[in-house]
């Protein structure tokens, strides 16, 4: 099966915002200064010298938390964009809150990441207005240790850019982001970096007996792809960290077709794949001394005469058979093959990232991704790093008692639990059957964080989770 036409590589987001650091507030004239107040009203104050000051009321400084600080950094940028300013000047020391105990370099990184995230919006298919889209071209940071702040800003810009590139491709319409286009994007993203790219097409996957991936993609004219990115920044003898990302570029639900209220937005069902691609790219750009592999099974789950069916029995790469009870539980099926493939790397750790279940949203709302692991130390580490990065996670159980709920009747493993309860947990229990205790493993169900929320001071579309968390994890392992 081939795509009907070959679309050009998309014009993915390229940051043009310039974040500069100057000493003693001598940055020359700028369009808008920023000042924080504890009480009063937000607004613009005109200065005698022709400059303007944006006043933001933030309340008691002693009540500032890291979470509030992240939102404050974004709020500054969104306010400037709303008022169509193109330049900002900010006293860096205003963002220093002693109770948070954040080092200067780390604070500069946090600000840069969130400045860029707030500035980004998905405009690929909008007609450009005569005056152009609001664009913040420069942020001038004044007052502080120039050297330390510049180090943090450089790191933050790299991370922020890759978060935004992840958001960009995840928000692309399904017709403009098929598995084959995702392959081309992955190749373009690592160009010039020490990253090896391997792509397994359907013939190669058939030789490897990846029956799960091949079955899910059967109903689409777009050919399924298995993308492998390998970054070797550590010693040759060092076991790699393997990141596995769900890459369902559009999910209709297959024969178990999604209702209309749930099918819109399913172009973002490849958010996990987008996240692991750009986490690896960020790691390579940051020159982390780690070996990292990203595996992305990329498919389109369509309803057609050639679709796989409820009741089908699939033979996965591991040899285990999968009883299909619902074709809309397809993400776990493709991840089964990818998690088995990961064993060939003898990994130090495997983290899979997937917009896997609506049940995770039912459990956690839309504020945190669901975290599954049997390693308590890893669980605590990821919760801590989630708070640091802003990609919040919260644990759900992965007890052995749940294994029976995914035991198949006519196949080894069923792709749905025996009841309608605990769907996020039974999905994780399904994946666990293909890990087989072969390596340390973390499963992140990012369905709750697939899209942004109105109070996050981010544009609509993909939230870019959990790129920031993955970078923190790779740095600290």
CATH topology name of the largest domain: Aminopeptidase
Number of domain units: 2
**How many β strands by DSSP?**
18
| Rg (CA only) | 23 Å
Question: pLDDT below 50 for ≥5 consecutive residues: which ranges?
Answer: 1-15
User: Which structural category do the helix and sheet elements fall into?
Assistant: alpha/beta
Count every helix, treating DSSP H or I runs of 4 or more residues as helices: 13
Please tell me the overall pLDDT: 93
- For the record, what is the CATH homologous superfamily label of the largest domain? Zn peptidases
**Distance between the first and last residues' Cα:** 42 Å
Report the major sheet: 9 strands, mixed
Helix content: 25-40%
In percent terms, what proportion of residues is strand?
A: 15-25%
Q: CATH architecture of the largest domain, please?
A: 3-Layer(aba) Sandwich
CATH class of the largest domain: Alpha Beta
So what's the overall shape? elongated
Can you give a write-up of this model?
The chain is α/β, with parallel strands linked by helices. Helix content is 33%, strand content 19%. The protein contains 13 helices and 18 strands. The protein has helices at residues 66-82, 104-119, 146-171, 179-189, 202-207, 211-216, 260-263, 271-285, 331-341, 358-364, 376-389, 423-435, 467-476; strands at 18-22, 32-37, 43-46, 52-57, 87-91, 138-142, 195-200, 225-232, 241-245, 247-251, 291-301, 313-315, 321-323, 349-354, 369-372, 393-395, 413-414, 441-445. The strands form 3 sheets. Strands 7, 8, 9, 10, 11, 14, 15, 16 and 18 form a 9-stranded mixed β-sheet that branches. The longest helix has 26 residues, at 146-171. Mean pLDDT is 93; it is low at 1-15.
């Amino acid at each position: 099966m081939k795509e009907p036409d070959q679309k050009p590589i998309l014009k993915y987001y390229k940051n043009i915002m310039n974040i500069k650091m100057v000493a003693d507030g001598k940055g020359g004239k700028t369009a808008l200064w920023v000042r924080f107040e504890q009480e009063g009203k937000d607004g613009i104050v005109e200065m005698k010298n022709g400059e303007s000051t944006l006043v933001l009321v933030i309340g008691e400084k002693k009540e500032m938390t890291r979470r509030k600080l992240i939102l404050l950094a974004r709020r500054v940028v969104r306010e400037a964009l709303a008022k169509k300013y193109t330049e900002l000047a900010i006293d860096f020391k205003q963002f220093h809150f002693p109770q948070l105990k954040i080092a200067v370099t780390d604070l500069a990184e946090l600000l840069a990441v969130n400045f860029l995230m707030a500035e980004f919006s998905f405009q690929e298919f909008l007609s450009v207005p005569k005056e152009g889209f609001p664009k913040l071209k420069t942020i001038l940071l004044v007052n502080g240790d120039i050297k330390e702040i510049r180090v943090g800003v450089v790191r933050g810009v790299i991370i922020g850019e890759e978060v935004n590139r992840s958001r960009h491709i995840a928000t692309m319409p399904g017709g403009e982001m098929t598995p084959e286009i995702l392959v081309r994007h992955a190749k373009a993203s690592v160009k010039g970096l020490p990253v090896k790219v391997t792509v397994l097409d359907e013939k190669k996957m058939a030789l490897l007996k990846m029956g799960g991936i091949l079955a899910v993609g059967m109903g689409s004219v777009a050919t399924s792809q298995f993308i492998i990115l390998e970054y070797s920044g550590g010693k040759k003898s060092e076991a790699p960290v393997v990141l596995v990302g769900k890459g369902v570029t559009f999910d209709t639900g297959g024969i178990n077709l999604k209702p209309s209220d749930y099918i819109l937005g399913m172009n973002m069902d490849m958010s996990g794949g987008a996240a692991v691609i750009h986490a690896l790219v960020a790691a390579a750009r940051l020159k982390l001394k780690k070996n990292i592999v990203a595996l992305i099974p990329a498919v389109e789950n369509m309803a057609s005469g050639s679709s796989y069916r409820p009741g089908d029995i699939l033979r996965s790469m591991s040899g285990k058979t999968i009883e299909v009870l619902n074709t809309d539980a397809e993400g776990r099926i493709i991840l089964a093959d990818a998690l088995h493939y990961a064993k060939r790397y003898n990994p130090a750790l495997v983290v899979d990232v997937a917009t896997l279940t609506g049940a995770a949203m039912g459990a956690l709302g839309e504020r945190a991704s669901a975290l599954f692991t049997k390693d308590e130390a890893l669980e605590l580490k990821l919760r801590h790093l989630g708070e640091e990065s802003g990609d919040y996670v919260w644990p759900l159980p992965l007890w052995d008692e749940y294994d029976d709920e995914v035991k198949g009747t006519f196949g080894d493993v069923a792709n749905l639990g025996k009841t309608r309860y605990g769907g996020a947990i039974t999905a994780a229990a399904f994946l666990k059957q293909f890990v087989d205790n072969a390596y340390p493993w973390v499963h992140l169900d990012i369905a709750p964080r697939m899209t942004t929320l109105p109070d996050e001071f981010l544009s609509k579309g993909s939230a870019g989770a959990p790129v920031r968390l993955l970078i923190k994890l790779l740095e600290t392992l």
